[in-house]
Specification:
By secondary structure, the protein is α+β, with helices and mostly antiparallel strands. The chain is built from 6 helices and 8 strands, in the order H-E-E-H-H-H-E-E-E-H-E-H-E-E.
């Protein structure tokens, strides 16, 4: 089943649960928790956008909620929670591009860095991408100073392809991005429990 054939069926596979995290659809009530992530300079210094105001964070969440209703979907922008708590601690996004391809993005609230949440959530997103979505290629463009995020994708089997020079304008300056990718044939089959 391709991404465009999923339409309403995707609600049957979301939320996505890993060992540590759950990826679920955003809700309008996530705005305050989203602000704790995208309003924090410690987090956004590594993202492709500047820190956002409380209002802009709420608008980001409301936009994601609206886009999730559009069929066929062109993105899966999902909230990240711990398994035992439904409160937002991050997000993970698969932006569908081209033919059976997607761009991956993710962030975790600074207080939860180093606990394996990003790796776990991205693993769940990749199982979804290469399973039900039947994608062929996933890319991730990561800031060259973001060693932790580069470690996440490298642990999960991504290949470094090169550097995109002056790729994003953020925090008042142009920033390069290190481009990584993984192909469907390089991703292991999900293990059944």
């Amino acid at each position: 089943m391709s991404a465009h054939e999923l339409d309403d069926a995707d609600t049957a596979v979301i939320p996505l649960a890993g060992q540590l995290t759950r990826l679920r659809e955003f809700r309008s009530s996530d705005g305050v928790d989203a602000f704790a992530i995208v309003g924090d300079d410690r987090v956004t210094q590594f993202l492709s956008f500047d820190s956002r105001s409380r209002e802009a964070a709420q608008s980001m969440i409301d936009g994601a909620v609206e886009r999730a209703r559009v069929m066929p979907r062109n993105e899966y922008y999902l909230g990240m929670t711990q398994l035992e708590d439904d409160r937002l601690i991050g997000f993970c996004r698969l932006g569908l591009t081209g033919v059976r391809a997607a761009q991956l993005g993710y962030a975790v609230i600074a207080e939860h860095w180093g606990k394996g949440y990003a790796t776990d959530a991205v693993r769940s997103a990749l199982d979804f991408a290469f399973g039900p979505l039947d994608l062929h290629r996933i890319t991730a463009a990561i800031g060259p100073d973001n060693a932790a995020s580069q470690g996440v994708v490298e642990r999960l089997g991504f290949t470094r392809e090169g550097v995109l020079r002056d790729h994003v304008f953020t925090n008042g300056a142009w920033r390069d991005s290190v481009l990584y990718s993984i192909l469907a044939g390089e991703w292991p089959e999900p293990k059944s429990d």
